[in-house]
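Course assignment 3, question 2. Fill in each field.
Student: A.L.
Task: Predict the tertiary structure for the chain below.
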Amino acid sequence: FTLLILLRKSPAGLKPSELALLVGVTQATISGLLSNLEKMGLVSRESHQNDGRAFVIKLSEKGESLVQEIFPKWHGRLASFWGTVSSDEKSGLDVLMGKMIERTSLLSSK
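Answer field:
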């Protein structure tokens, strides 16, 4: 769903490498996800406008319909979930998550 939302916000399409970076996964993971979404008819691959060797991923009409169907339900549930968390708690979580993200490189260092 996250990939579909990102593609919806980028009508010109995104390269698989851009999607991987935005989602925080490897290009191999994105490749598998995109293959499945393409088989389902939710996305399409098109030649890159400026680089004939590259391609971009775009949301298909079927993908747009699915997003329109799911988004209101998803948004409502997300709003309900976060509605129980105070502003102070959200701020504290932001700080904590920021620290965790900054320190992820320590996990992979040798």
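Instructor remarks: Residues 61-83 form the longest helix (23 residues). The beta strands are 43-47, 55-59.
Grade: pending
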